Amino acid sequence: MKKLILCIGAILLLICCKNTKDVTTTVAKTEEVSSVKNNETTAGINKVIIKQHLYTLAADDMEGRKPGTAGIEKAAKYIENEFKRIGLKTYNNLPDYRQNFEHDNIKMFNVIGVLEGKSKKDEYVIVSAHYDHLGVMNPGEGDRIYNGANDDASGVSGVLALAEYFKAKNENERSIVFVAFTAEEMGLIGSKHFGKDIDASKFVAGINLELIGKEPKTGPKTAWLTGFDRSDFGKIIQKNLEGTGYKLYPDPYPKFNLFFRSDNASLAKLGVPSHTFSTTPIDIDADYHKVSDEAEGLDVGVLTETVKAVAKGTESIINGKDTPTRVVIE
Questions:
Q1: Which residues contact residue 134 at a Cβ distance below 8 angstroms, ignoring those fewer than 6 apart?
Q2: 63, 170, 276, 322: most buried, per Cβ within 10 A?
Q3: pTM, to two decimals
């Protein structure tokens, strides 16, 4: 009888352990599903893919991506191939993703892909960054390549990630124009050329990404926006980011006049509420326009979190719920 009781006890123990394991597994799966739901607004913005974009565009074989060189041609092909892989359309009846033009006897090209909107497809939101940089310095010893990882391979990586995200989400009521501008470093040449051919009244907002690979002085999970007080674009972003743990601040460097120093300015001068997101403490950054601006010096986590925040922050504009006020140019 004693042996029988012990045997029954052992069987009950095994059943209990199995049920406990099943419950534990179920809880783990439930938590996993919950985690996915909590992050579904930025699902598809992948740190690994962003790192791939960054390290490819800032590699030595891109030779600093100066307009008119083999390096920028290579960078353009990479961006074109990504636009094609993602499934973007070409812009404004162009035969491919390039908007070709000539400046100072240099053949140049913006790289443009379009995600057509649904109910408001004739209203446009532009998502941009510049893919050019300074090339290779004059002959000398040591590292001579201006890789331009933060300036602005980081921004282009963000544009590509956002293109993939919004394409997969498939909820954009407005059309999104994704642009990698050329010759920003030469005086916003690419964005100025783009602006010549548009009906600015149809462009609802401009989302420009520049220097987003380093943590700002405002701390983790923060970014700043140029020209914050020139429209209510920034306030819309702040509203959409409430509860996410990410915060957007006005540009902390007004003396640098940064609103007019990146490609957003070319559209802003046409009245478009076009602003630049950035994270880098530009006043103390040791790598700005130096050969030391390499991918290894950036924080891919900061870059990824910023891109996620831009996706979440701009979603109501892209979905047609919010329309920023037109920009004020003094």
A1: 64, 66, 146, 148, 185, 289
A2: 276
A3: 0.87
